[in-house]
Amino acid sequence: ERIAYAREPRKLPVVLSADEVVRFLEAVPSLKNRTALTAAYAAGLRVSEVVALKVADIDSGRMLIRIERGKVLSRLFRRLFLEHLAAAHAAGRLSFFADLGGLAEPAAFARHLAPLRRADWVVYAKRPFGGPEQVLAYLGRYTHRVAIANSRLVAMEDGRVSFRWKDYRHHGRQKVMTLAAGEFIRRFLLHVLPDGFHRIRHFGFLANGHRAARLEQSRRLLAAPPPVAEPVEPDWRDRHRRLTGDDLRLCRCCGGTMVVLAVLPRRPAPKIRYTPDTS
Questions:
Q1: pLDDT, tens digit, for every residue of 93-103?
Q2: Of 49, 117, 185, 205, whose CB is crowded by the most CB atoms within 10 A?
Q3: pTM for this structure?
């Protein structure tokens, strides 16, 4: 027969009082070590997180400390994310279809989230330097453009390529840079996406593979009429008149209809004298 052992009463852990903490920290002779111990005790940081701190990571004005690749922010974000996800499931704000229909049951959903509570989440939060508008402006220059336009190419002589570039650090000043042909091609190919990659990838019903079929199905389920295609004018001047009300065929002076008499050939682009950029 198994003998049950008597349970010992559990006690609360012994912690230092506020005065004892102050005396403990003041006993550290080195100011550097005292600062590290104070930050670790006050913020609950690990040793690896304290030794990686830099002066720029401490915001005294807002009383914030930025921890890079730290586990404190990772575990906090993991707990809050899963708690809000479970609350949304309990409130009936989540819908599951097809193979995921079984997750509508609370027990099945809890089992599905169980491995996520033990996984290490990688969280990196950093405020953009100039705000979200600057980030979008920077990325927007690369979404629908090639690496370099032909108009920026200046010359190619003796195996070297010269091209214009805009220095945004000096108010968008136009400069000319000269590179070896191999280095120019190398930089150009850095902007070429590998096979299967897209600059802008659409998901869901807007995915390229079945966009037309999914849009038609969505309109049918929503009882929405199909969009009316706008008529395409054969001449761009007709489209300009329809959109703006301004007829480019009329003379600005007399109001009569202008007639094309001749088309002047385009003048060749002048050669640009430049000085190599040494910055």
A1: 998 887 888 99
A2: 49
A3: 0.33
